[in-house]
Amino acid sequence: MAQTEGAEKAGTRAEMREETERQILDAAEVVFAEAGFGGATMQAIADACGLPKANLHYYFSSKEKLYRQVVERIFTIWLEAADSFETEAAPEVALRRYISRKMQLSREHRYGSKVWASEVMHGAPIVQDYLETTLRTWTETRIAVIRRWIDAGAIRPVDPRWLLYMIWATTQHYADFAHQIEVLNHGALSDAQWTEATDTVCGIILRGIGLNGGRTGP
Amino acid sequence: MAQTEGAEKAGTRAEMREETERQILDAAEVVFAEAGFGGATMQAIADACGLPKANLHYYFSSKEKLYRQVVERIFTIWLEAADSFETEAAPEVALRRYISRKMQLSREHRYGSKVWASEVMHGAPIVQDYLETTLRTWTETRIAVIRRWIDAGAIRPVDPRWLLYMIWATTQHYADFAHQIEVLNHGALSDAQWTEATDTVCGIILRGIGLNGGRTGP
DNA sequence: AATAACCTTGACTGATTGGTCAGGTCTGCT
DNA sequence: AGCAGACCTGACCAATCAGTCAAGGTTATT
């Protein structure tokens, strides 16, 4: 009974193991996001997913290993979203889609975003290599794309780096500073507000680099 | 000798106490920023300012009290910078000055910004009341100012909230994600890069809300 | 049914950490 | 000089936490 816990359907051994690991990772993501790596305790994570602490150590040999897997999972999701920055599309289309996707991610993966932010803020002790390899490569290809747009006169000449940082900062702010935003908003953002915020962010950035990004005419 | 430590000039008792407290707060700011509240240890802070741990407890009764003072000091600096958003100036002047000031703050108070970000990310357990009073009031007055600009047709109609969040996010990103930026940049940003980033951020945002914010013509 | 492999868990441990305290030192004042 | 009050600190707790372990339970396979 203990193994076929709750409402989950029993599957093969491998499926059940995967399911349990996912539950632990989900709980760990929230706890790490809310307390930071140092402030999080294995007991708190165990409580959050209703498992005894010793069981966590059966699936993840150490707190650091568990944390590493949480961060790696976030990075994977980030990478998938990064693909929505299509290098072949027109700047207006590519940027609008990328910004929208990142806003959606901030809404759906608030805790993941916070863990990533926390990790980078603390000097990326775990994911330093990702920054130097995957992220750097991705960034350089996108910088090249933006440069081409500039050379073609499609957008105003701005250093692509500052533009990318602006997009990352603005979109991730809605996850990382969600608490502050919700205090100022007297509650969580509504569907309409998320849409409006996304449109506004797209509008300002696109218009800011010389595109007629707004919904209404110039 | 222990009391007239290092190169500091001896002053009155009160001055020396203030000086020591400042040293501790400076060290604590860095340690809290780099390790988070939970990951920071009093011993690490003590080492960072070259004082025995017991001495820290003489000046600050508990880790939480020390942390609170660090956060309060940051909030004060933030408030002073917030004054550079002059409510009487033209939108282009007010916004450009405010953004520039915030960029400068990100450069000069990286650790403070990180502590604030961390505090808010974890649900503002210490500064919740500041968010609900001071920050909310400040934000509401600036929203009113921006609304007036919109009504006067000075800037395009955008919800002032999303604009403010964009400014906060973008400027603070240069402090909170400094590590990531420096990895991608292969080193710290130069004076010229800071100036260029500031100009670009100002340019995109001002242009994005319908002002001719760039240095060059339209 | 027997067996081996896998999973679960309460109880335990060594190490770390926030905080305390007694006894010492220094400073300013009379 | 002598005293009171402020300051300093090594040594010391009690609590907490990551990680261990042995014993028991469950499942798949033959």
Top keywords for this entry?
DNA-binding, homodimer, mainly alpha, Arc Repressor Mutant, subunit A, 2 domains, globular, 218 residues, Tetracycline Repressor, domain 2
Could you name the CATH topology of the largest domain in chain A? Answer: Tetracycline Repressor, domain 2
CATH top level assignment of the largest domain in chain A: Mainly Alpha
- Give the terminus-to-terminus CA distance of chain A: 65 Å
Task: Tell me the Rg of chain A in angstroms.
Answer: 20 Å
**Number of discrete helical segments of chain A:** 10
Mean pLDDT of chain A: 92
Low-confidence stretches of chain A: 1-9
Task: Give, in order, the helices and strands of chain A.
Answer: HHHHHHHHHH
How many structural domains in the coordinates of chain A?
A: 2
Q: What share of residues of chain A is helical?
A: over 70%
Largest sheet of chain A: none
Strand content of chain A: under 5%
Task: List how many beta strands of chain A DSSP finds.
Answer: 0
In terms of quaternary structure, the protein is homodimer
Kindly name the structural category of chain A.
mainly alpha
CATH architecture of the largest domain in chain A: Orthogonal Bundle
CATH H-level superfamily title of the largest domain in chain A: Tetracycline Repressor, domain 2
Which chain pair has the greatest contact? A-B, 57 and 57 residues
